[in-house]
Specification:
The protein has 20 helices and two strands.
């Protein structure tokens, strides 16, 4: 292989000359997937009104997507290995566009929930393919670092773009365009992917762990559904307790099966590492609080304070800006010099402090002095936490484990979002209902009492979220033991279970 050298770097002559345009297509697809977890937050009050969705069920617009996404993400990575990355990438884009069109045309709540779940299914196919294509397209270390930096910056901006795009589309068109907008984006990405990305054959020896998918995804669905039914039925209702029991049993069976499967969905040596397991747990707990906040603040700003969708989207900008600063200007600079947990623990505590500030909000709170400070602290804390979690969880991993490790980090994020949205929505609805029942004495004050009840329910749930964020900090402090710099390259012998499960 001939090599061209420029200074200290060496780049192969046979490197794809279109690789940087390919990066644009890959990043565009990943941005669409990340954006869709937040774009519907702004549109949710309008969609709830149009389709007659109950307060208890509204969380399924978000949870149906994150649950399907997180539950099937590991399977999506295996499918990419089996079918081929570019082919899976294109299939994921086409399916995502179709599901988005179906959701935009929804005439019932069930149709919208189903479309969002279908979006999650195809997102689980698309996201691992995009990351794998990026890995195989950029092989030179210097170029790979630059490509991953661009990719991470674009993917990380998905939340901000989602809130702004959701506000613009909802206000000037309608909420359905928050889903329809994915169709032209996906079409561009499909043609760009076919023209610019190199196709590689799949691994004929790869096998799908279908029992693992059924057990793992089934257990997660049972748990989330149990949380969502706890509010209307009560925590001690037989159905709720049965759902929790079934969820625990299925997840325990999933762990058992992963020790027996020849090609497991989640090789258990990935999570046996104490630091890596601590990163997964920290991510899951932190996202439980974050997703709950997005849901409540959207309703607070639009329904209680009467803001427009666009103004609501702009209201999230301080949180997004603080997250970017915490991640790129603080964590990225300090991580090479300090142990990861010295960033994760203060970050979780800072985010929890921001939540505590938000528990003081009332129906008449001023945004600039009572809401924005909490959002800024929350954003800084998340930036300090998420960046070292991603870097530490994926550092020093052997090449044959890099894909499944990345998928596991993303899975813990999506599962945390699913559980957090369902759990905290249940807590908020129950708290608001109890407040109205206890304080409504004069029918003439009903409108005010209902608004106060909504805010009371939100603050109770935010207290829970603050506690969960402290648990995230505790998990990071006790389990993440990596020293700076986080793991070096893996040197240990390949475990026997890996040799048996590794694809040819």
């Amino acid at each position: 292989m001939s090599v061209t050298r420029t200074g200290a770097s060496a780049v192969s002559d046979d490197a794809d000359p279109r690789r940087w345009w390919g990066l644009v297509i890959i990043a565009l697809a990943q941005l669409m997937v990340v954006l869709d977890a937040t774009i519907v937050n702004i549109a949710l009050p309008s969609a709830q009104h149009d389709l007659g969705i109950s307060d208890n069920n509204r969380q399924w617009v978000i949870t149906a997507y994150t649950l399907a996404f997180g539950g099937l993400l590991l399977l999506g990575g295996r499918i990419a290995d089996l079918v081929g990355r570019r082919r899976t990438f294109v299939i994921g884009l086409i399916g995502f566009a179709g599901a988005s069109a179906l959701g935009g045309a929804a005439t019932t709540s069930g149709m919208l929930f189903g479309a969002r779940a279908l979006q999650g299914v195809f997102a689980a196919v698309l996201a691992p393919s995009a990351l794998s294509l990026l890995t195989t397209t950029f092989t030179h270390p210097k170029e790979r670092g630059k490509a991953f930096g661009i990719y991470g910056a674009l993917a990380g901006s998905g939340a901000a773009i989602g809130f702004l795009a959701g506000g613009l589309l909802t206000e000037y068109l309608n909420w359905r365009w928050c889903l329809y907008v994915n169709v032209p984006v996906a079409v561009i990405a499909v043609f760009g992917g076919l023209a610019l990305l190199r196709g590689r054959p799949g691994h004929t020896g790869a096998r799908l762990d279908i029992p693992g998918v059924v057990l793992g995804c089934g257990g997660l669905v049972a748990l989330v559904y149990g949380f969502s039914e706890a509010e209307p039925r009560g925590w001690t209702d037989p159905l709720v307790l049965s759902l929790f029991a079934v969820g625990v049993v299925l997840l325990a069976a999933f762990v058992w099966w992963q020790t027996r499967a020849s090609q497991p969905l989640l090789p258990l040596h990935i999570v046996r590492d104490r630091t890596r397991a601590g990163c997964f747990l920290t991510m899951c707990l932190a996202v439980i609080g974050m997703f709950g906040l997005f849901l409540f603040m959207t309703y607070y700003l639009q329904v209680v304070l009467g803001w427009s969708p666009l103004k609501t989207g702009l209201g999230y900008l301080p949180l997004t800006a603080a997250t970017i600063v915490g991640s790129t200007q603080i964590s990225a600079r300090l991580l090479p010099r300090v142990a990861p947990r010295l960033l994760m623990v203060p970050g979780s505590v800072l985010a929890s402090g921001g939540m505590v500030i938000l528990t003081q909000m009332t129906v008449h709170s001023a945004y600039a002095t009572e809401i924005m400070p909490g959002l800024v602290l929350m954003g800084l804390g998340m930036g300090l936490t998420f960046m070292p979690v991603f870097a530490t969880a994926t550092a020093g991993v052997a090449p044959y484990d890099s894909g499944v490790t990345s998928a596991t980090v993303n899975t813990s994020q999506q599962v945390g979002g699913s559980i957090g949205t369902a759990l905290l929505n249940t807590v908020a609805t129950a708290g608001g209902t109890a407040y109205v029942a206890a304080h409504l004495r004069n029918p003439a004050e009903k409108a005010l009492i209902v608004r106060e009840g909504m805010v009371h329910g939100y603050t109770v749930a935010i207290w829970w979220a603050a506690g969960v964020l402290l648990l995230a900090g505790l998990a990071a402090g006790l389990m993440v033991t990596a020293k700076p710099p986080a793991y070096g390259p893996a040197r240990a012998p390949v475990p026997e279970e890996v040799r048996r499960a590794r694809f040819p």
